[in-house]
Amino acid sequence: MPDRPFALALSVGNRRLVSAVNAAAEALGIAPGLPLADARALYPALAVAEADLAGDAAALRRLAQWCNRYSPWTAPHGVDGVFLDVTGCAHLRGGEASLVRDLVERLLRQGMACRAALAETAGAAWAVARCGGSDSTVVPPGAARQVIAPLPVVALRLDPALAGELERLGLRCIGDLYALPRATLAARFGDKVAERLDQALGAAAEPLLPLPPAPMRWTRRRFAEPIGTPEALMAAAHGLIQRLCRSLGDEMLGARKLVLSSHRVDGEVAEVTVGTARPSRDSHHLCRLFAERLGAIDPGLGVEDMLLAAPMVERLVAAQLRIALFPPEENDTFGKPESAREAAQAGGNIVIFPAGRSAARRLARALPADRDGVDAVELATLVDRLANRLGPHSVGRLAPRESHVPERAQRFAPLFAPAEGMWRSDRPRPIRLLPRPEPIEAMAPVPDDPPISFRWRRLQHRVCRADGPERICSEWWRGNEEEEALRDYYRVEDEAGRRFWLYRDGLYRPQAAPRWFLHGLFA
Amino acid sequence: MTETGKSRRLEALRRRLWALERAGRQSRVVLPFGLGPVDEVLPGRGLTLATLHEIAGAGGEEEDGAVAAAFLAGILARLKPGLSVLWCLGESDLYAPGLAALGLDPQRLIVARSRRTQEVLWAMEEGLRNRALAAVVGEIDTLSLPASRRLLLAAEASGVTGFALRRWHSDRRAAAQRLAPNAAQTRWRVAPLPGDVSAGEPGVGRPRWQVELWRCRGGVVGSWVMEACDATGHMSLVAAMADRSAAQPASRAG
After folding, report:
1. In whole angstroms, what is the distance from residue B56 CA to residue B72 CA?
2. How many beta-carbon contacts under 8 Å exist across A and B?
3. Are A343 and A322 spatial neighbours (Cβ–Cβ below 8 Å)?
4. Which distant-in-sequence residues (6+ apart) come within 8 Å of A399 by Cβ?
5. pTM for this one?
6. Which residue range(s) make up the domain with B107?
7. B204 vs A381, A389, A467: nearest CB
8. Beta-strand (E) ranges in A326-480?
9. A467 touches chain B (CB under 8 A)
10. Mutual angle of helices B145-158 and B117-128, in 10-degree steps
11. Dmax over Cα atoms in chain A, in whole Å?
C-alpha cells in the first residue's frame, strides 16, 4: 500500500504513539512519535497496524546476515541500520562504488528502500547515509572531514535533546564544531559530543561488534597426492560425509542439500550437488546419493582438495535414523514380507526410501527395455511411494538364481539390482509355488509311483493322470544338513482338472512311511 | 414384438449407452485375443485397455488362483511388451518360471507384497495412475463397488489397464464375493478342465480351461473351452467344445 497513508502504532505506557509511517502519511504531517489520536485527527482514514519491535529487530538481524555477501563483518545498528566493514572486500565487487550500487540495487529489488554510504569511519558513513544528499554515496578517502562538515549535528549520532541544545547555541552543522576548542566542548556538552566527533573523523577508534557468522556446515580434506580413480573419490567423499553427518548430529540437524566441490590440480572445480526430500544425516543414505553422481566428476589430472558443504540444513530431532534402501540380499525366496515394518516398529527406527532422481537412475539402468527417462522417473516415484508405505522389503522383482531347488531358484530382489542369471525353461514349472511345501496325506501303493489320491487342505483329490518323477537334489555343496533333501516331483491332475506339483521327500524306504508334500500349482 | 427382438433392441440400446458413457474419454484401444468367437463378443473386438477387468477362478480354484493367474499372464504377455507390469500380491506364491513359460517375462514385473487388501487396493490405484506401466494386477479378496470404481477411474485417466485377480480364502468368502457387483468392464471366470489326452499319450496332457465371460459391459457374454497359453501368451480355442459362445443373449449381471 504505497499510496494510502499507513502507520504503525505502538503502546507506550497508556498512550498509543505512531512509531512509523509511510510516505503518504508523512506527506499529511503524520510523523513518528505523534499520538495516534492526533494522527487520526489529521487523517481519519489512516490505516494502522501494530508495530512489532521484536520482529523488526529479527528482520534487521537477518538483513545484516544477508549482507554477509559483501563482507564477513556486518552488524545491525540501532533499529534501522546495518554497518558493514568492507575493508579489503570492495575489490571483490569491482570497487567501492560498484559495491554500494550493487547493494542498493539488490535491496531495492527486494522492495526495501535504503540509503547507503561508504566512508572511512562508521561515524562518517552513518552521517552521510542519514543526512547526506544522495541515496548512495561513496566518500573518497581523506574527504570525510569536508563531506560531513555541512551536515547537521544530529548526524553525529547524538541524541535529539543534545543536538537540539547545540542547535540553540548556533552550532548547526558539524563543521561548526571543528573550530571549537576541545576542552570547551567537553566542559559544556559532556564527553559524548567530542567522542562522536572524533569517531566520525577517525581520531577515536570505534569497534564494530559483528554478528556471529551463520554457521556454515562444511568439512574439507586435502590430499597429499592428487587422487583420480572413482574408488578413491568415493572413499574420500565417504569420509567427508561421515564427518559432516557427525557434526550435524551434534546440532540435531539434517542436510537437505549437500555440495561436494572437488578442486582439481589444474584449478578447475567440479561441483556435485545432492538434495534430499527430507533432512537426513544418515551417511549411508547420503553416500548412496553421491555414488550416483560421482561418476559425473571429471578428475582431470587429479583432485587435490575436496570440500563438502551443507548449505541447506533443517532441524532433525531423532536419536538415530536408519534408512534402509533394500537389504543387500534376501536369502529365502519370499522371506517375511512384513519384516522391515516390524523391525521399524520394534526398533523405533524410521525406514525411509530415498526418493527422486537417484532411484530413477538406478531403475533406468536395472530395468530391461529401452524406455525413456521420463518413464523411469515416473516408475521410480511409484516404487518410492509403494516402498514407503508397504516397506522396502515389499517391493521388488522376481529374480532368477542358479539352483535346481525350486524355492531357491527364485529370489525376491531389489528392483534396482542388475539382472543376472536366466530362468530355466526346460522343465514344467508351476505358476504358484507355495511359500512352504505343505504336507499331504497321500496314498501311493507302489514305490516310485505317484499317489493315487491325496488329501490337501481337508479336501480329497483323486489323481487321474500324472507325470514324473523328476528327481531334484539339493546342491552337494550345501553340506550335510541337507543330505536328505532329495525330492521326487510329480505333476498330477485330479478328476476336476486341477494340476498340482507333489513330491515325495527322500528315497523310498520300505520300513518308513514316505512323506508327501504339495509344493505348487499348475495352470 | 417378440422376446428375442426385444432383447436385441435392448442390447443395441445398451451398446449405444455404453458408447455415450465413454464419449470424451480415451479412445478405445483393445487387445484382441486373436480368437474369433471371443473377440466377437467383446466391444471393440478385443479386451479393452485403460479400464478394469476382473478375473477369478472357479470351482474350488479361487484360493490359489493358478488357472486365473495363468490366463492373466497370457494376456499380459501380449499387452505392451516393452512396459513393466505392477503385480500386487497378497500371498507370496507367484512363481516366475511358471510365468515365463506362459510368455510373460518376469523381468517386466514389479512385485509389491502386502497381506492387507486395503494396501493392495492402494498400491493398485497408485500403479494405475502411473502412465509408465503397461498394466496393474492386484490379487484381492474384497472388492467393493466404490473401490472398483476408483480403480476404474484411475485406469481410464491414465490409460493403464487394471486387472483384479480375485482370490478368496474360503468357500464362504468366495460365495459372498463371487457375484457381488463391481465396476469392472469385463468379469471372467476361469476353471481348469482335464487335459487333452486325445493324442493318447500317457501323463498329464496339454492343460485346458473353461473360460467364461459372464459379465461384459457393452458386449455379450460367452463361454469357451481353451487350451492354455503357449510360450507367447496365445491361447487357442478347442473347436469341438466351443459351446454356447455368443449364442445365449446378454444378461447384464452385476
Report:
1. 10
2. 187
3. no
4. A410, A411, A412, A413, A417, A419, A420, A421, B106
5. 0.54
6. 3-196+203-241
7. A467
8. 395-400, 410-413, 432-443, 453-456, 459-473
9. yes
10. 20
11. 131
- The answer to whether B204 contacts A368, with C-beta atoms less than 8 Å apart, is no
Q: How far apart are CA A476 and CA A487, in angstroms?
A: 14
- pLDDT tens digits for A248-294? 888 888 887 888 988 888 888 888 887 665 677 878 777 877 876 78
Is the CB of residue A424 less than 8 Å away from at least one CB of chain B? yes
Q: Are β-strands A81-85 and B133-140 bridged in parallel, bridged antiparallel, or unpaired?
A: unpaired
Does some domain include residue B187? yes
Q: Which three cell numbers stand for residue A136?
A: 548512495
Interhelix angle A373-390/A357-366, nearest 10 degrees: 110
Pick the CATH number of A217-315 from 3.30.1490.100, 3.40.630.30, 3.90.650.10, 3.90.320.10: 3.30.1490.100
Chain B contact for A429, CB < 8 A?
Answer: yes
CB contact under 8 A, B95 and A435: no
Start and end residues for every CATH 3.30.1490.100 domain found in chain A: 217-315
B112 vs A394, A431, A465: nearest CB: A394
Angle of CA points A287, A291, A294, to nearest 5°: 120
Judge: A435–B91 Cβ closer than 8 Å, yes or no.
Answer: yes
Q: Is residue B247 in some structural domain?
A: no
Task: Note the residue count of chain A.
Answer: 523
What ipTM was predicted for this assembly?
0.83
* CATH code for position B222: 3.40.50.300
Distance (Å) from the alpha carbon of B20 to chain A's nearest alpha carbon: 32
CB pair distance less than 8 Å for A424 and B84: no
Q: Which helix (H) or strand (E) holds A31?
A: none
The answer to whether position B246 is within a domain reads: no
The per-residue pLDDT for range A92-142, each reduced to its tens digit, is: 888 888 999 999 998 888 888 888 999 988 889 999 988 888 888 888 888
How many domains does chain B divide into?
A: 1
